[in-house]
Amino acid sequence: MKSIAVIGAGTMGNGIAHVFAQHGHEVNLIDISQTSLDKGLATITKNLDRMLAKESISEELKKSTLDNITSFTELKKGVADVDLVVEAATENLDIKLNIFKELDSICDEKTILATNTSSISITQIAAATERPEKVIGMHFMNPVPIMKLVEIIRGYNTTDGVTESIMQLSKKLGKTPTEVNDYPGFVANRILMPMINEAIEALYNGVAGVHEIDTVMKLGMAHPMGPLQLADFIGLDVCLSILNVMYDGFKNPKYAPCPLLVNMVTAGKLGVKSGEGFYDYSESRKAEKIAGQFA
User: Fold this and answer.
1) Which of the 8 DSSP states describes residue 274?
2) What sections of the chain are H helices per DSSP?
């Protein structure tokens, strides 16, 4: 698989494009917004510069990585003659179904269609196409250039050959692919999201404060980041979406989102992306921290 198309230039999409391009693949990065494409490419450049400063890559590799990426705002042009499409759009079932239905109609019959969904059924997504045997899940972890794991999720009709080819491709990217079956939340989020939700419940019920909950999990359980801070980095809207998928899929109240999470998302407090979640990421807060260093 030499040529890859990545749909979505956001956090996950630009990270996936970065990794493929760094490993010698020709990458078509696709987004309906030129602004999003420009921002995604700027992020890739910044991450490469950081790697260059740490001497983990050479100037030549940085240049070849950027040269391997071409941006498109038109889906049909972006997916023409590629071997693999990796969809990394918003975690919304209707959006993904529409994308895969269109991909099926415009992609070459040899093209494998993958989704970076973190919770939605691969079988359901594949059903929107006439090639369900060539549809698979590639759930990369954030930040993609650093995290080693890729959950490989096969749908009901995904063939052994397609699964094996994606497993091998992931290894060539320097990743550790782990095959899992098609259940809501797969493995990573089936375990992670209830923990995050329970941390929010503890805050909601007044068991402890934000810092205290995160401190217990960091120092007591050796987690690198507390669950509430992690939720902020994932995006509270994304956490809510994944919990809703699992709740609808399992019909089990243990996956029901905490009312505090629902209210925060409704109020627009989404975490890092909005400047405020369980923690304050606003520019004014950053200024206070900087001023405090000189006090």
Assistant:
1) G
2) 11-22, 34-53, 59-67, 75-78, 93-106, 122-126, 160-172, 188-204, 210-215, 221, 227-234, 236-250, 259-266, 283-293
Q: Please report where in the chains the tokens 């959006």 appear, as a residue.
A: 95
112: exposed, middle or buried (Cβ count in 10 Å: 0-12, 13-18, 19+): buried
Give the pTM. 0.90
* CA-wise closest residue to 64 among 122, 129, 20: 20
Rounded to whole angstroms, the Cα distance separating 3 from 23 reads 12
Please give the average per-residue pLDDT across 180-188, as a whole number.
96
Short-list 177, 175, 169, CA closest to 25: 169
Short-list 188, 146, 138, CA closest to 165 = 138
Would strands 149-154 and 135-140 be described as parallel, antiparallel, or unpaired?
antiparallel
Q: Which two tokens stand for residue 89?
A: 């759009």
CA distance 13 to 24: 17
**pLDDT tens digits for 113-133?**
999 999 999 999 999 999 999
Name the CATH topology of 3-180.
Rossmann fold (3.40.50)
In the chain, CATH 1.10.1040.10 sits at 189-282
Give the pLDDT mean for 150-176: 98
Give the C-alpha separation, 34 to 271, whole Å: 25
Catalytic residues: 118, 139, 151, 189
Half-sphere exposure in the Cβ direction for 295 (13 Å, CA) = 7
- Complete edge-to-edge strand list for the sheet that includes strand 135-140: 69-72, 26-30, 3-7, 84-87, 112-115, 135-140, 149-154, 176-180
The CATH architecture that domain 189-282 belongs to is Orthogonal Bundle (1.10)
Render pLDDT for 80-104 as a digit per residue (tens, 0 to 9).
999 999 999 999 999 999 999 999 9
| Helix, strand or coil, per DSSP, at residue 64 | helix
